[in-house]
Amino acid sequence: MPRILIIGGHGKVAQRLEPILAERGDTVTAVIRNRDHEADVAATGATPLVADIESFDTEQLTNLVSGNDAVVWSAGAGGGDVARTWAVDRDAAIRSIDAAVAAGVKRYVMVSYFGAGPDHGVPEDDSFYAYAEAKAEADAHLRESGLDWTIVAPSALTLDEPTGRITVGGSGEQSVPRGDVAEVVAAVLAEPATIGRMIEFSGGDTPVADAIAAG
């Protein structure tokens, strides 16, 4: 039974991912900031763990991730506050990567977004700029970490019912249900062939397992 640590465990993608992993027999720990969310997370089959990743240093994060087989980063500041975007989406993410290295947790899956990278093209006066830059830096750090990484990069997220089908690649101008993003994360955790890949995808017609294997 793989031990999976999900950082950002009360997020909309994470709460769809947790029952998928739990039902297939993985041991799932979900890191959350707010103790009031413990019951929500426990209901998914995951074990809630209250910790403020924004304030944790690398040593504390190393202790947090130790003993797991994989880390999934599904946390985010949620936009709006630029300083917190840098603090969570870049700085805390980078510390968590360094922590995984220090703890010997080789497998790391980053939830990013379609088009993320240094050539994201978002102008500095755009409210999305800080997030785009933060994700570009965190993703780059992950690529250079020596970990067995996968970057999951969905297009615009919706709350539509998941279909279990996606399209890898394309323009990124489409959308995808959050439930299907969770299916992709679960699938890449179980598929070593996805290591070292950034998988950009939208909703589509190909079953998730086939789509990620073909990429």
TrEMBL record:
Alphabetized Gene3D superfamilies for the sequence: NAD(P)-binding Rossmann-like Domain
Pfam families: NAD_binding_10
InterPro entries in the cross-refs: NAD(P)-bd_dom (IPR016040), NAD(P)-bd_dom_sf (IPR036291)
Location of the NAD(P)-binding domain: 8-192
Highest taxon, organism lineage: Bacteria
Alphabetical list of PANTHER family matching this protein: FLAVIN REDUCTASE-RELATED, UPF0659 PROTEIN YMR090W
Record-given protein name: SDR family oxidoreductase
Organism of provenance: Microbacterium thalli
